[in-house]
Amino acid sequence: MANKTLSGKTALVTGSTSGIGLGIARTLAAEGAHVLLNGFGDAAEIAQLQVDLAKEFGVQVAYHNADMSKPAEIESMIAFAGDKFGGIDVLVNNAGIQHVANVEDFPVEKWDAIIAINLTSAFHTSRLVLPRMRANNWGRIINLASTHGLVASAGKSAYVAAKHGLIGLTKAAALETATTGVTVNAICPGFVLTPLVQKQVDARAAKDSISNEDAKKALLADKQPSGEFVTPEELGALAVFLCSDAAKQVRGVAWNMDGGWVAQ
Question: pTM of this prediction?
């Protein structure tokens, strides 16, 4: 069996019960990492997911239902990881929510929730895992930002602000750990066909009275020159690279995987 790059390591992926987070969790498990899942969903489905992942990849899989907008619950999750696995070696901050409205119409509570989950939660997880990573002189923090951490779109002020902030947090933490074996980087996906994006596709199909397939093409044509969605598996492969020895001097980057979106 080929040597797996993350054997013996433990990865926490927030927001990993579906979509990008689950794709990344699967890819890390395939490299031998034990995985701590986090997110919302049907309890029976999540329990089955744990069993399936553990069986498929021969790793330990656990789950914690911390609400990423609540610091005390994040602290409980990191303590749980310490008890169960001895701690976290790879932290992937992926949890995120979205709301679309112009600034003057943006509901204040939605703004607060988006900043809390998309930005502040990554500060809390990072501050809680860094002491152990420093002590071990090895760790990887990967923040799932977005092309919206690099450029803006109308109607997405909170999301854009949070993702720009997440890249700022990434850079600052990367500088603080620059002389250690800990690296901190961000991945900035373009459109990925997650349940979140599928909702946008469905809405567009209904609004323009077009097929789902045509709605997908129209959505991509707006922003993503390749005309193809980024896949969770591709993002997972980039996360695995960032965890590897080959990437140990990759520090504080915001790496866009976006089919050319930001090149325009």
Answer: 0.96
